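Design job #97: recover the sequence.
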């Protein structure tokens, strides 16, 4: 019971709850809440006398906050990648349509794909 308030848990997550106390003591929670109510009350009295949270909980809270920030950043990256994929699919589709049109226009004559229209040379007056 003393390990939790001082922040040195061996078996639990270090939070100041009856559940953590039961895990730390190796008991089922209902044993503390129904059979050993005096121990539960003593634990809550110790918790109320303590002004701060245990160091283990503070460390876990900081780590949890870091993980939440990382998850948020990863979600943003995932969303950006999804948008990039959709854009690339549209670009590929446009390129396929253009490629099909170029292949159809290449079938007209000599097998040369003309990107620019052929200019006709006009025979004009020469000096």
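Job complete. Output follows.
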């Amino acid at each position: 019971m003393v390990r939790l308030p001082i922040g040195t848990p061996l078996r639990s997550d270090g939070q100041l709850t009856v559940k953590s106390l039961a895990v730390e003591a190796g008991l089922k929670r209902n044993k503390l809440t129904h059979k050993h109510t005096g121990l539960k009350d003593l634990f809550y009295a110790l918790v109320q006398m303590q002004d701060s949270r245990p160091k283990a909980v503070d460390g876990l809270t900081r780590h949890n906050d870091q993980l939440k920030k990382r998850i948020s950043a990863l979600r943003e990256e995932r969303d950006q990648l999804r948008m990039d994929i959709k854009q690339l699919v549209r670009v590929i589709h446009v390129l396929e349509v253009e490629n099909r049109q170029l292949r159809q226009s290449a079938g007209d004559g000599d097998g040369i794909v003309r990107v620019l229209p052929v200019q006709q040379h006009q025979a004009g007056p020469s000096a």
